[in-house]
Design goal:
two-stranded parallel sheet; Aminopeptidase; binds zinc ion; alpha/beta
Length: 336
Amino acid sequence: MKVLLSKSSELARVPWVRIPPSPPIVVMKNTHKIICSILIIASLAIAAIIFRYEANQNPKGKSMLGSIRQQLSFGPRYVGSEGHTKVQNYILETLEGSGLEVIEQNWTDTETQNKLLNILTRSNPQAEDRIIIATHYDTDPTSLRDVGRANTPVPGASDGASGVAVMLELSRALNDINTNPKLGVDLVFFDAENFRPGSFDNWKPKGSSYFASNLAKLYSKNPTQAIVIDMVCDKNLSFTKEKTSLESNPVEVDRLWEIGNEVDSGAFIDDGTKEIRDDHNPLINAGIPSTLLIDLDYPYFNTPQDTLQRCSGKSLNTTYAVLRNYISQKSSPGSL
Ligand SMILES: [Zn+2]
C-alpha cells in the first residue's frame, strides 16, 4: 500500500524546515464567522443595489411599495382596529389630492353594529356608462393558515395593502388614462372583506355586499364591468383565470389576459380551474359581470409572513400597467 504524503507532511520530515503550528480551532471558528458576516453583508448590499436599480427603473413600483410600507406602519387594519381608521384617513387624504370626486358610503352593519365605510372616487361622474375597479382595504384579524399563530392579525402587505397601493396610483392618473367623457370609471375601496366569524364557511364580505345592494343610490344603470384586484404584489406574480369570473365574464377575462400577456406574459397563466370567493361575488350576484384578478399562489396568504419583503415593485407595476391599458382600451371610441 502506498500512502501519499501531503506536502506539509513531506516537509515535516525535513529537519530544517519549520512548519507553523495549525491555527487553533477557535481561530478557525472566528474566521468562519467573519467570512459568513462578509457574505451576509455582501448579499444585503447586492439586494439593496438591485432594489435601488429596480426602483430607479420603475418609479411607479417604488411609489406603490412606499404606499404598502405606509399602510403597514398603521398596524393591522381589521374592522375595529386603530389601523383601520388610519388607513381610511390615508385613502381619503390621498384621493383628495387627485382632484377627482370622492364619495364616502357609510353605514352601520346590522349584524355586528360595526360602523363601516366604502370609499369611491370617480372620473366623469356625469357618464352613464361606468366600469368599476375595486379592492378591499381592511385586513384579516387572524392568520388561519398558520396553525401556531392563528390568532395573530396578518400584516396584509399583499392581502389588503397591495390593491390599495395600485388603485391610489391609478387615481393619480385616472383623468389622463380615461379620455372618453362618455365613460365613467369608479375606483372603489371596499371595507370588511374579511368577515367570516368562526369559519371560512361563514364568509360574507360586508363592504362589497352593501355596495351591491345599494347600486341604485350611486348609478342610474348598472355598471357594465367590474375588476376586483387582490394580492397583486408577490415577487413571483402568477395570475390564473378565476373560475367564477370566467363564467360571469369570459370576454373581458380574455381581454384582460391578452393585455396581461403584452405587459408580462410570465405572470398571466392560461388556466381557469381555480375558484375563489372574494368581493367580485356580490357584484356578479347583483348583475355586474366581474373579474377577480388575484395571485392564488401567494404562499404567505393569511399568515404573519404577508410582509413588505414579499412584494416587488415590478409586480405592482405589472398590475398597474394592465389596469391602465384596460381602462385606456375601454375608453377608446367605439368600445362602449
Ligand atoms: Zn384579500
